[in-house]
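Regression check, manganese (II) ion case 326:
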Amino acid sequence: MAQNLRAFLQEHASAHQIDAALIDVMNTVADTCVAISSKVRLGDLAGIIGEAGSGNVQGEDQKKLDVIANNMLVEALQGNKHVAGLASEEEDNFVAGNVDGKYLVLFDPLDGSSNIDVNISIGTIFSILPHEGTLELDSFLQAGNQQVASGYALYGPQTLFVLTLRHGVFVFTLNDANEFVLTRDTCQISPSTKEFAINMSNQRHWQSAMQTYVAELLEGKTGKRGKDYNMRWVASMVAEVHRILMRSGVFMYPKDSRDPSKAGKLRLMYEANPMSLLVVQAGGASTNAHENILDIQPQGLHQRVSVVLGSTDEVSYVTEKHVSSN
Ligand code: AHG
Ligand code: MN
Ligand code: MN
Ligand code: MN
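Current build output:
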């Protein structure tokens, strides 16, 4: 019989000497994603579609579901005694948890907000960091390579839960009984690919290295790269990363010239770090077009970063192009 998430986590923990408290935190995240999924599935019938009428610290208009998913995660994780603190894309500041907690959970409660109202795949992304001592802002500012676990729930045609505890990447599918069941126990991103993902409408704002790279891809078989590339853009990072884990590819959200104070659109702590750990665990690579994302020392909770992740040959090629152009 197929193994459910709880049984898998127990076995995985004993095979790799993983702390039981961390497993408990992972179960709380997964249970909350099941509850979020139930609301997503019902859409208008659950009153979750549309604007919340508020904004977040990122300067974005919040959708009802951004707020609902955030509140569900905050409440559930504050109720877990192993969680010392939380940080969320939708919260201005970090939120305190329990004084004896050993873990910090950082999350993008609802990724792909622009897709909520049009019934396209969305998700929840999470990152778990270790914690000791007094809780302060500095406690959260750990590089991505310190993450003890990360993952996402994908609310698509199927609801999936994808995780890593630094010993591989595993995929679970939500069944009729609202239980996550293991459906894939290896994810391996091949080094080469013929598929890229970038929001082409921003092309004129990119740096010249990115302009050249994408122009080379568009040349096709007879061009410099000698291949016909295909392009995809879902506008939900969670769906793009899932596609890359399933069939390889390269995903990019580069910084551009519109707002030089921002180093890109995506958030280091809630999006780039957790996704980078998954991708690296699956044999792929992840950089900000110059250095490995997981090595970046964060300066702030809501810090933004350029992202290039996926198949190693492409990520190295893009990164090399940027490094040599400076
Ligand atoms: P969020 O909905 O959590 O704010 O994140 C949206 C992000 C990411 O999921 C996606 O890759 C990107 O924004 C889409 O951006 P465009 O609207 O520029 O396509
Ligand atoms: Mn947002
Ligand atoms: Mn997001
Ligand atoms: Mn979000």
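Comparison notes: Residues 58, 60, 89, 113 surround manganese (II) ion (ligand 2) (CB under 6 Å). The first strand starts at residue 51 and ends at 55. No diff flagged against the previous build.
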